[in-house]
Amino acid sequence: MQDFQTITGRGVQGIIEGQAYYVGRPEWVTERNLSFPDSLQQALDRADDRGESAVVLMADDRVIAVISMADQVRKRARTTIERLHQMNIQTVMITGDAEAVARAVAEDLGIDRYYARVLPEDKVKRIKDLKKDAPTAFVGDGINDAAALLEANMGLAIGAGTNVAIESADLVLVEDDPLDAVKALVLAKKTYSKMLQNLFWATGYNIVAIPLAAGILSKWGIVLSPAVGALLMSLSTVIVAVNAVLLRRVKLA
Hints:
alpha/beta; 5-stranded antiparallel sheet; 9 helices; elongated
């Protein structure tokens, strides 16, 4: 094959034995001013009815074939959606797949909303719209997801995805497991909670100990000696350190 190219949001193309071929989304047929023969249009309709994804093989002047594929939903994906709902997080699927495919997957997993037939540049627009309502996290793994990963408040890339997606994300999930996104959110919330707790301990010590050491209550006979102040300072440091280490006991999933 010669001159192999990836056409963002469309598909791929290349030359075999002097003939150019194109493989991509069905909408690419219309964009190239071609049309489906009746038999292939029927095949495309059947794929949509079954909730299958379809890609089209084309030459310069005609549509050659329609290839339909069905996605197998992972059990961990269903668990991921359930855990997100338990955390009161709304789930949205943004995909370039056909309407029927997106609807079937969304209904199977219990996804709150979905957007189908979305081009890469339109994914960014969807993220911008969602950010108007609430902070948004986006999980993706492909070249087409890179811009959306950058636009979201938090971009999470699947470790098995493309380098472009990984470099665009704020956080990389090392394993190819959607439940890791939930674990990352749980860890982030627990870490933030520990930060507030440690801030309370550190600030509380200073609010109490410094005025006492300065003698604010000396006329009532209450004075904090340097030795006791040093002891309290050490105790405060130990409490903060131990509290931070307790993060290791957090159950993430």
